[in-house]
Amino acid sequence: MISQQAVLEVALCFAGRELTDGEENVLSILCGGALEQWLGRLREDVTEEDCQDLLVVASAWTALAGMTGALEQSQPTPLSFSAGDLTVRAREDRTGDACARSLQSQAERLMEPYVQDGCFAFLEVEG
Predict the structure, then answer these.
(1) pTM of the model
(2) In angstroms, what CA-CA distances link 59 with 38, 44, 68?
(3) With 60 as the cut, is the pLDDT of residue 78 above it?
(4) In the 3-class helix/strand/coil scheme, how is 67-104 assigned residue by residue?
(5) Among 21, 36, 64, 118, whose Cα sits 20 to 30 Å from the Cα of 27?
């Protein structure tokens, strides 16, 4: 059985920087939630053991995607400021959102062979 701690350890490897204790606590919670989410999406013929390593990585990426998006939204960047003759304008593109989307997309592609596709379809319709 995969532990939340195993997912957290992988997520910390990908974090790209040292996290504060508070951030690490939040990431730990997100790792547990991401793992439960992926376990809930496994196809009926797939067990946790069939894709254990991939589940850990996908859960870590999913948790980091959530963390990245939340951190960017909570830290607004001023669009511009001036000091004397100097004016600085920030670009409006938010790289955290792109990073979060990329991490989630990679996790989805990694787990694609093992999860239910989530699409709706009629299998048989009597007419």
Answers:
(1) 0.76
(2) 7, 19, 14
(3) no
(4) HHHHHHHHCCCCCEEEECCEEEECCCCCHHHHHHHHHH
(5) 118
